[in-house]
Amino acid sequence: MSLDLGRDTSVFVVGAGIMGSGIAQVAAQAGHAVRLFDAREGAAAAAVAKLVATLDGLAAKGKIDAAEARAAQTGMRRAQRAARSSCMARRQQAAPPSAATAAAQNTAEKPNASLSAPPATPPTTPEAP
Asked: pTM of this prediction?
């Protein structure tokens, strides 16, 4: 299956790890506006900074044209955290909490007896004859 995206199509990449960063780089070099998002605070910004350095390095080695590197860097941005917040708010309004969510909330409120502290004195072991 082939999908032809025009250069005016924005690409939103969820996950700023190795694979997400690679997808973002390829899309940016193809001329797309790229927005990179990661749930971990600061991960998307760090990935964008690393991609900018990677593109600069490729241009310095002559692998890509300096103008191409600048164009790719210009179209690449970290997605704003607000986008996630508004999306999550809409999702929570649309559906009641699932049974798994309710169970997780109940577990978080009640301490688990199996996770209690160990006894103050260690158990004794019989000595060998």
From this structure: 0.58
